[in-house]
Specification:
The chain is an alpha+beta fold. It has a domain at 227-328: Enolase-like, domain 1 (2-Layer Sandwich), CATH 3.30.390.50. It is built from 13 helices and twelve strands. The strands form three sheets. Strands 4-5-8-6-7 form a five-stranded antiparallel β-sheet. A four-stranded antiparallel β-sheet has the order 9-10-11-12, sandwiched between helices. Strand 2, helix 2 and strand 3 (50-53) form a beta-alpha-beta unit. Helix 5 runs antiparallel to helix 9, helix 11 (276-282) runs antiparallel to helix 12 (289-299) and helix 12 (289-299) runs antiparallel to helix 13. The N and C termini lie far apart (52 Å). It binds flavin-adenine dinucleotide. Flavin-adenine dinucleotide binds next to strand 2, helix 6, helix 7 and strand 8. Flavin-adenine dinucleotide is lined by residues 29-37, 54, 75, 79, 102-103, 107, 110-112, 114-116, 118-119, 164-167, 209, 214-215, 240-242.
Amino acid sequence: MKAFELLRPASLEQALELLPKPADRERVRVVAGGQDLYTEMKDRLIEPDQLLDLKRLAGFDRLEIDGAGNVTLGALLTLSRVAEHAGLRASLPLVGEAALSIASTQIRNVGTVGGNLNQRPRCWYYRHPGAHCLKKGGSECFSKEGFNKYNAILGGGPSYIVHPSDLAPALVAAGAEVVLAKKGSSRTLPLEQYYTLPRDGDPLRETVLGSDEILTHVRIPAPAAGWKSTYLKFKERGSFDFALASVAAGLVVEAGVVRSARLVLGGVAPIPWRAKAAEEFLAGKPAQPATWREAAAIALSKAEPLSDNEYKVALSQNLIERAFTRLTT
Ligand SMILES: Cc1cc2nc3c(=O)[nH]c(=O)nc-3n(C[C@H](O)[C@H](O)[C@H](O)COP(=O)(O)OP(=O)(O)OC[C@H]3O[C@@H](n4cnc5c(N)ncnc54)[C@H](O)[C@@H]3O)c2cc1C
């Protein structure tokens, strides 16, 4: 690993002063738990001169639920605390379930909310130091014609990565917002808009985070009355693993009829994939198995599998049906 200077700001103001201009983006990197960043450095995928360690920033590890049920998750909050918080699991089960599905206890004890939402793709070509793929400034996404079992079936092109975070689909389904701070100002945007498709933005990046910005916290609005939610994830290994496919689902059902629904897919697209057509279809339909089957078909109707990942279509459809069945039985 290349030697680097460790900067340990004592306040957010100090941290923001130290963030780089866009031209120096590669020189300075923010580090939280380091579970992803250090791996990238050891593999020489990135070689920053300076690391900006956020761990001394006061209040960045908070988990608050206010009287109205609105939730605040600090960027440095560990995934373990999200997974284990009884109040959060009661009001927003999908968030706790997603956090608990991540990696192992040891990784959850160190990995943070901000790090999980900003972790880099796990595509084998991106992670291989010898593969100069599109995500690293090359001209081609090798997975399109190459090894693509784990890659995107929705929203792909020109890069076919899938977003690796489990927390992200759950938080998008919960309607979360992220707060981004930079020197002198901050902005808030829906988490859904934080992620960008490779075809819509810079294929080297997955988010709209500026080089001079830090994600400070996530806000989740209080769930609507009667809202039930769950997160289901399918992994290749029984022990810790990333999602081959996952589903974050939420429903309000009244008198046997769906009043509103949220459906976000993970592991199948470069961003948490909101299945809006399926959500719209569900509103006003009877809460029954045939409805879930049709919603699942709609959610995957635009899938464009690559040579080795067609299995993700049926897998995602099954997870959707199971998630809605779980919420209504
Ligand atoms: C073996 C293994 C298995 C895993 N399995 C899963 C899994 O199943 N599901 C899953 O979702 N994840 C999984 N992960 C990923 C793991 O959850 C993430 O690596 C972890 O959440 C990253 O958190 P961190 O705090 O260590 O981030 P870091 O490694 O410190 O940072 C990760 C990235 O986020 C940026 N960053 C961190 N904080 C901020 C901030 N506040 N503002 C802006 N940018 C920031 C960093 O610059 C860096 O680019 C796995 C990781 C490993 C090593």
